[in-house]
Design a protein that fits this description.
single chain, about 450 residues, alpha+beta, BirA Bifunctional Protein, domain 2, 2 domains, nine-stranded mixed β-sheet, 17 helices, about 20% strand, elongated, binds histidyl-adenosine monophosphate
């Protein structure tokens, strides 16, 4: 086979799959600890779900096509519109606040580069039906705890926090007309990658004069305290600042003050955010964002649903995986087989296969050599799969109803009746169901 996977798409060989599984099961564990429940939606959606409200950048990156029934469809590039639709459809009957999480695989036609591929897995945690800033504080704490769960701490990453409403109000104060606000915000977002000269050109193109542009550039460097002093006269701005101050107090109360930093340079690319926005970044800023989210109060109504407030974040597996590899936080291989059943002659093969089956029924993992190779080679095979125990059945054992045992770690050997071996092996109901595999 000469063909390779498409650019930006990954083959998950077992060692890569192990890291993916480690990441996804960690996500599920933390989300459940916060009382979120899991949901999923379709990977293919009507195109208009994204063209309506996600914003230009994501629409440019859509994998979209016309299906055989003539429908314009797209592979999901993000989960938020699906969530908004699903919650909207049942909003009346769901107790509020709704706290849901999901672990979708998402598709974006981006230029593949370090930390950005054309598919990725993304933990989404969202809260619907809550306006209190305590919801923001819980959500950012959850995102922080996801990274802490994997062994990262405040020296490795930081949550940069800003507020779309505050940025909009400050831009308006600086002289940006209302009908240009969206473009100005999108320019601010892109300026992180494009630089200040590019931003000045964009703002000039949006009709801003030199003084206004200087004010916009200046806003980005302000601390919350400075803003409170400068804009204390405006009720709306004071209100937005007060809310942010409450948020930081709640982070402090959770002992997470070192994980969060106010940073008005951040506005986020997606169009639907209406309040606090945040992103998690590796401290030095070398890597792309690990996580991003915020409040999006108007989205459910904009998609034709009830007018419910909402907030959430998406946290991807790509940058997180790179960071874990860099920091040596990827767990060692742990796949092992409990028992390897060895048969001495071809005559014992049916007995060996039967024994493997009985062990599996009791919840143990068991393997055997398909062909009757020499006993020495079967022991080597047991070693290769990391078996804890080798169980040997030869002609005498078969005749006497016994087995020989070897502890593969200590080398200790023994001889026991088959019935004892099976009684000792735990019954099936002593083993809880393994957690569900991700899609
Ligand atoms: P986003 O900022 O577009 O937000 O993506 C969130 C995270 O997904 C990023 O920080 C990054 O870790 C990961 N990610 C995004 N695109 C790629 C890519 N091409 N390759 C690898 N990783 C990627 C959203 O998607 C929002 N829907 C999040 C949200 C949920 N807001 C509210 N609720």
């Amino acid at each position: 086979m000469k063909s390779s996977s498409l650019p930006g798409f990954r083959d998950f060989y077992p060692e890569e799959f192990r890291l993916r599984q480690h990441i996804l099961s960690g996500w599920r564990e933390v989300a459940r600890r916060y009382g979120f429940i899991e949901y999923d939606g379709p990977p293919l959606e009507p195109l208009e779900l994204y063209t309506a409200k996600s914003g230009d950048e994501i629409v440019e990156q859509l994998y979209s096509f016309t299906d055989k029934g003539g429908r314009a469809v797209a592979l999901r590039p993000e989960m938020t519109p699906t969530l908004a639709r699903m919650v909207g459809g049942r909003a009346q009957s769901l107790p509020k606040p709704i706290k849901w999480f999901s672990v979708p695989q998402l598709f974006r036609y981006e230029r593949p580069q370090r930390g950005r591929l054309r598919e990725h897995f993304q933990l989404n945690m969202d809260i619907v039906g809550e306006t209190d800033v305590a919801a923001e504080a819980e959500l950012v704490a959850a995102a922080v705890d996801v990274l802490r769960h994997f062994g990262l701490d405040e020296t490795d990453f930081v949550a940069r926090v800003s507020d779309r409403r505050l940025v909009s109000l400050l831009l308006r104060e600086a002289g940006v007309e209302d009908d240009r606000l969206r473009e100005a915000i999108s320019a601010l977002d892109r300026s992180e990658r494009q630089g200040d000269d590019w931003l000045v050109d964009r703002l000039t193109a949006l009709g801003l004069g030199e003084r206004a542009i200087e004010r916009v550039l200046g806003i980005r460097e302000r601390s919350l305290a400075e803003l409170a002093r400068e804009y204390g006269g405006s009720d709306e701005i004071s209100d937005a600042i007060g809310r942010l101050q409450d948020f930081f107090r709640l982070m402090d109360a959770q002992g997470l003050a070192d994980y969060v930093a106010f940073d008005l340079r951040l506005v986020r690319g997606l169009a639907y955010y209406t309040g606090l926005v945040f992103e998690l970044w590796e401290r030095s800023g070398r890597l792309r964002a690990i996580c991003g989210g915020g409040r999006y109060d108007g989205l459910l109504a904009a998609l034709g649903g009830p007018d419910l407030p909402a907030l959430g974040f998406g946290l991807g597996d790509v940058v997180l995986g790179e960071l874990l590899k860099e920091k040596g936080l990827v767990p060692e291989a742990s796949e092992r087989v409990d028992d390897f059943v060895i048969f001495v002659t071809a005559e014992q093969r049916p007995a060996a296969i039967r024994l493997a089956r009985q062990l599996r029924e009791r919840g143990r993992s068991a393997a055997f050599d398909y062909r009757g190779r020499t006993v020495g080679r079967q022991f080597r095979a047991a070693d290769q799969v990391g078996a804890s125990r080798a169980i040997v059945i030869g002609p005498e054992e078969e005749r006497d109803g016994t087995v020989s045992l070897r502890d593969m770690e200590t080398g200790a050997e023994g001889h026991v009746p088959l019935t004892d071996l099976l009684t000792e092996a735990a019954p099936p109901d002593a083993h809880p169901e393994p957690p569900p595999q991700e899609a």
